[in-house]
Specification:
With 89 residues, this protein is mainly α. It has one domain (16-84). It contains three helices and no strands. α1 packs parallel to α2 (34-53) and α2 packs antiparallel against α3 (58-84).
Length: 89
Amino acid sequence: MNETKVSHNIVTGIDDMEYVEMFNLDPALAYTPAINEAILNSVHENNLAGAIAEGVPEAEARADADKQLKSGRMTVAAAIQEKNNPQVP
């Protein structure tokens, strides 16, 4: 039986394992829908840590990082919706 691995990340042409390596994620997340949330959470943590390192007060840094996380989740949801229900011109 041929077991084809299907990437679940929202970027066409990038394999889930590339994201696992880029963001140092658990390899078990690759080829599962959970990869997108793991990527978003990693970016959120990096954004928060980076802003704090630049001297942004923690409350402000957290608010900005949380806003970006929410936006990222909306982008992922929209991309998945489009992938599952493509609009035909």
